[in-house]
UniProtKB/TrEMBL annotation:
Primary localization: membrane
Subcellular location: Cell membrane
Xref: SUPFAM superfamilies: Family A G protein-coupled receptor-like
UniProt-recorded name of the protein: 5HT6R protein
UniProt gene name: Htr6_0
GO biological process, one term: adenylate cyclase-activating adrenergic receptor signaling pathway
Protein species of origin: Panurus biarmicus
InterPro entries xrefs: GPCR_Rhodpsn, GPCR_Rhodpsn_7TM
Length: 134
């Protein structure tokens, strides 16, 4: 006795399939970015922490080697601003608004007053009081 196989997607499933595919691509990209960031973190800092524990236990780590591993960890911090814009469009767009080297010529530079207004929740009253202070 065989049961007929029902289709898993409804006839209008093309849109939902596209929606799912778009989100799965975003999730895959986010996972890849997170994997790279964590991988870089472990490659840079794990030797430092292992050496730090070894130094506390036996005192057998040369000072120069310990300094090299410390600077390897510091280099990880310099890699984050490079990795984020490579893999995250939103981060790149946000940084482009504030850094003059990355801004497009059509985009005006935000003023300090407009930034403070955007970040505050007090509305137009803050602008009036800010003008009185200036």
């Amino acid at each position: 006795l065989q049961v007929p196989h029902a289709p898993s997607q409804p006839p209008a499933g093309n849109e939902s399939r596209r929606f799912t595919n778009k989100h799965s691509k975003k999730a895959l990209k986010a996972s890849l970015t997170l994997g790279i960031l964590l991988g870089m973190f472990f490659v840079a800092w794990l030797p430092f922490f292992i050496t730090n524990v070894a130094q506390a236990v036996c005192g057998c780590v040369p000072a120069g080697f310990f300094d090299v591993l410390t600077w390897l960890g510091y280099c990880n911090s310099t890699m984050n601003p490079i990795i984020y814009p490579l893999f995250m469009r939103d981060f790149k767009r946000a940084m482009g608004k504030f850094l003059p080297c990355c801004r497009r010529s059509a985009e005006p530079r935000p003023s300090a007053i407009s930034l403070s207004m955007r970040n505050s929740n007090s509305g137009p009253r803050a602008a009036a009081s800010l003008k009185n202070v200036l």
